[in-house]
Each structure stands twice: as C-alpha cells, then as structure tokens.
Amino acid sequence: MIPQLVQQIATAIGGPTPANLQLAQAEVLTSDPLDLVLRMEQVWNDADLWAQGQPPAGPARTALIGLNAFETGQWTTPPNAPLPVPTGTQPAWDHLIYAYAIENTRAPQILARVVRAFRSGEGLGVASVATQRWLDATEALLFGATNPFAAWLSTSSVRPDAEAVRRNAYFRLLGMDLAHGTDTNTPYPYDKAEASNRGFVTVFEELLFELWRAIENVRNLVAGNTTDDDRIYRLAEQLGFMLRSRRIDAVLGREELAATTAMGWVELTVSSNTSVVRDLRAEATSSVDRLRIIGERVRLAPHSRASSFFAMAAELSLLLRALEGGWVTGNGQSWLLYQTTPPPGMPPLPPGQRPLGAEVRRVITEWAAASGHDLKQRTVPVTVVPAGTPLPARR
Question: Is 267 part of a structural domain of the chain?
Fold first, then answer.
C-alpha cells in the first residue's frame, strides 16, 4: 500500500518525476498515523476479497474511512485532490513475498532500536519535528502503539507480537522462515502451522531455472533451443495451486496487507535521505548503505545480502501475483514469464497483464545472490505434480 500511495501522490502532483516522488515520500512519511491506518482500512474494504455482496466495513467504519486525508483531499501538498484506491484485477497492495524480502534485511529490528532510543533518551540526538512524526507513524504501523483505530490490525491479546504474526504468514504461504532470530540472536518464537507450503522454494527455484534457460534462448532461432514452455506452464500451475490453497476465502489477506504496509513503510524510510536518516547522520546513496550506517548507530547489523533483498522485493511481488493469479493458463502463455515484449501475432493480453521478462531476470540474479543457490545450473530435476482440480484464481 505504501509504494502505491507514494506513486499516486506523485502522479497527482504532476507525474512520477524524481522531484515529485521526493515530495510524495515526504508527504507519506509525515502523515498522521490515523490517516495511514484509515487508508489501510479503505484499501482493505475496497478490495472486498470476501466477495459476499457486502464490503467488510459496516456503516460506522465506512464513515471513519471517509475522513482520512487521502480520501478527502486534505493531504498537504498541492493539488490536494482526493486519492481513490486504485482499482484493478489485483489487490492494491504488494504480495506477501515483498514483505518477506524487506523483513529479511533485518531493517524492522534495526528501526525498532531506533524508535526505542529516540523515545527513551537522547543517545541518538534530538529528533526533528519531521522525525517525531515518523516515530508516531512507525509505532502505529509497525508496533501498534496506542493505535487509535485498531480494527485493521492483525494482532490482538491472543497474538500480540506483529513480527510473530508475519513469520507465521511467511511460513504458511511461502514455507520460509526469516534468516534471523530475535534482535539478541535467539530463535524467534512463533506458531508454525501444520498446513504450509514447505515445498514452495524447491518448485520456485526449478521454475527460475527453466525461465533462465528460456531467457537465454529468446533470440535463439536455430537448433538447440532448450526452452520448455510446457514445463514452465506446469511449474507455474503447481505454484499457483500451492499459493491459492492457502488463500481459500481470502485467508491471510488481512495479514498480508498489514505486513506489506509495515514493510513498505520500512523500505520508504531508507529509500532516500529522509528526515530520520539525516537525524541519524546516515546519509548515503543506497538503501542498504543507509541501513548499514543506522545499524552501526544502534549496534545491530543488517543481513549481509540485504542489497539483494531490497533489489528484488518489488519484482518478486509482481511475479508471485502473476503466478497466484493464474496468468499462465497453458504453454501458449509461458512467454509471459520470460519475454519483455509480446511475440508477433499474439492476441491482446487481459487487463492488468504484461510480459515480466525484465522482472524475472532481476529475480533470478538477486535470488541467486541472496540464497547462494546457482539457479543457472540444475542438480536434480523437480517432479511436477499435477494440480488436479484448480482452485479459483484469486480475485
């Protein structure tokens, strides 16, 4: 939700130029926490993933949603126009794997130490007014402190730890744990569900291997083309089935929105030399360098491959939305995952679909760097299990 909101504001200002994006980032980072929470609730309500003929929000919540600054046009940067939630075939937030990638950098735990230090003393200096506004929103979005409107939260007295809730969701949908434990380097306690996609990584890496072979052969017009469109389709089908099997009746939808919003806030915080970055004297030319300097200030190092996680988070989200949404419905659509433009003679694509060749190439490069797995060489082929009766594609 956060990256999408920044893009919307920049477009409303006059287009997503670097200067307008910087203004939009500052607008979001200094927003009132309640406006951001109500925007989340608006995004959830408009998505209507339950599809029961009646949106999730009742009259009282709907009235509150209508008061958020982005809905009323009362955000501070001209032209102060209302910003309706974007409509489309996919939810207006990132896939859960985006949150997984950003959280694996360890940025949330590092920023938790920043919040604690600023709120409990002046060891990091005196926070500027803009940074104090950032602290208010960070405590609301990441840590749920005195949230004035908690209906959206994926936490409660039953499951009070937001990070544990996110870890549970990552394990259920993606079969993966984060690469780190607590900020004191002990194992992180959370509920591990029995029903989880433990085979996701194996099948996903096999798909990336096949897609790399296809990318290598895009311009190969002679003998020896090893592209296997049917296998790409079968692997994509199996991954889509796995992901949708954890999404029946929009299960994990709210947890995904909460996680991706929190991690979008984290990424936005270190995406440029924002107020908190300047107050921490952590100015640098990249997100990972800013995070590294901030980590030094609070004595907690980020993941050694944090640059790869930052670099592929958005592309991973696009790829998994395509797989879960069932873009590849036969071997005749496999090209969507490795071409950058439609092959000659192809019919128009459905709304919201486009070739993902450039994004897949980035994912292959950065996933290999982050995991240490050579995706360009196969060790043991993965057996593709027939999906059986497919579950409905996610709305």
Answer: no
Q: Whole-model pTM?
A: 0.93
The first and second tokens of residue 25, run together, are 């980032």
Least confident of 137-141, 207-211, 238-242: 137-141
Residues 357 and 224 in one domain: yes
Looking at the chain, how many residues does it have?
395
Q: How far apart are CA 74 and CA 154, in angstroms?
A: 28
**Hey, what are 174's tokens?**
């993606």
Query: Domain check: are 83 and 214 in the same one?
Result: no
As for how many domains the chain has, the answer is 2
Of 66, 87, 108, the one marking the end of a domain is: 87
Boundaries of domain holding 31: 1-87
First vs last Cα of the chain: how many Å apart?
A: 17
- Answer yes or no: is 65 within a domain: yes
Alpha-carbon distance 343 to 336, whole Å? Answer: 10
39-56 per-position pLDDT tens digit: 998 999 888 888 777 778
